[in-house]
Write a structure and sequence with these properties.
This protein is about 25% helix and about 25% strand. It is of the alpha/beta class. The protein is globular.
Length: about 270
């Protein structure tokens, strides 16, 4: 994995839920020909200096390199999301899949504006989403898919399915040449639990976890325990952002050292599959 906090060419533009009993099948093992996948943070309350993009509380990232371009969450504000897409040189029409982690406004707030710009996109979301959310998409003629554990969103990219406590949420994951990469929106059910679910479904050890970890109100001791638990299941690199909290991020930096990745809006990551 290669990562950069600023990507000029772009921005100039043991927990396993008992109901999970089967591991997903990977269609192909990595061959001699590599495939590059990038993750670009399009919406976040943490920002990098001098990027010219707008940060606000919320989260969204763009995943490219699979068969389809995937938008994971949409931030809190549609105008800002579209502005940041434009500054990154990305058209909404270039994104065919949207995955929503959970039904909070700082992750769904940009969805209406995005779908107005691209009504052909398919939206993936947890089954427990409200009838109002579903009916609005249905009445607009949007294609909808409810996620299930291990669902292959597009070839090589999977969803953890919904973890229900305390707030229903799902994450996504894929395998690169170093192991499993896990992406979360807020990790309300627990960053360890979501990562462990991905490991249980894939049978592959996770090494890199990125996104919101939702640790603002957790004690220092609890955060250090979470760091230890992540290491226990194989995680070596972390990019905790959005709702993780400043103090928790400092603890992750202490615990993971050079394998802690700082950043936020404008951060970009590159992986070889």
């Amino acid at each position: 994995m290669k990562y950069a906090l600023v990507l000029p060419t772009l921005l100039l533009m043991a927990f396993c839920l008992s109901d999970v009993s089967e591991k997903c099948c990977w269609a192909e093992a990595p061959g001699s020909q590599t495939q590059e996948v990038t993750i670009d943070i399009l919406f976040d309350n943490y920002t990098e200096d001098g990027l010219g993009t707008t940060g606000l509380w919320g989260f969204a990232c763009l995943i490219r390199g699979f068969e389809e371009n995937v938008l994971f969450d949409t931030g809190a504000d549609g105008d800002i999301l579209l502005q940041n897409l434009a500054e990154a040189g990305i058209k909404p029409a270039d994104i065919s899949i949207v995955v929503i982690s959970h039904e909070h406004g700082d992750h769904t707030g940009g969805l209406r504006a995005f779908l107005t710009a691209n009504p052909e996109a398919t939206v993936y979301f947890p089954p427990s989403f409200s009838d109002n959310f579903k009916s609005q998409l249905s009445s607009a003629g949007i294609k909808m898919v409810e996620v299930q554990p291990g669902l292959e969103i597009c070839k090589g990219l999977f969803t953890t399915g919904e973890l229900t406590r305390p707030i229903p949420e799902n994450g996504i994951y894929f395998r690169d040449q170093e192991g499993l990469v896990v992406v979360t929106g807020c990790a309300h059910p627990g960053i360890v639990e979501i990562t462990a679910r991905a490991k249980a479904l894939s049978g592959i050890s996770p090494y890199f976890v990125l996104g919101g970890f939702h640790l603002i109100q957790r004690s220092d001791e609890a955060v250090r325990k979470i760091c230890a638990d992540l290491k226990q299941i194989g995680v070596t690199k972390v990019f905790p952002t959005h709702c993780t909290g400043d103090k928790a991020r400092e603890i992750f930096k202490e615990e993971f050292g050079n394998n802690f990745v700082a950043g936020g809006m404008g951060s970009s990551f590159s992986f070889e599959l």
